[in-house]
Amino acid sequence: NPVLQGKKFDTKGDYVRKWEPELAKLPNGTLHAPWDASPSVLRKAGVVLGQTYPKPVVAHDMARQRALAAYKTITGNN
Question: What is the DSSP string of the chain?
Fold first, then answer.
């Protein structure tokens, strides 16, 4: 999950701010998942989801659940 990896290994957001400058003004707490930020935080940072930064393509929580369910089906582990 790129969001969790970012929060774990880029806690200050240096990498994201360098390579995704459109997110640079977001606070650390919302930097790795800007779609979870409040409208006022996004507005203050100049981020417009779907315009200045894309909306998420994959819902990682749902994808993880599907993958785990498929794994259980394949392996027979319950």
Answer: -HHHHHHHH-TT-HHHHHH-GGGTTS-HHHHT-GGGS-HHHHHHHT--BTTTBPPPS--HHHHHHHHHHHHHHHH---
Residue 37: count of CB within 10 angstroms of its CB: 20
Contact (Cβ atoms closer than 8 angstroms) between residue 11 and residue 28: yes
15-54 confidence digits (pLDDT tens) = 999 999 999 999 999 999 999 999 999 999 999 999 999 9
pTM over 0.85: no
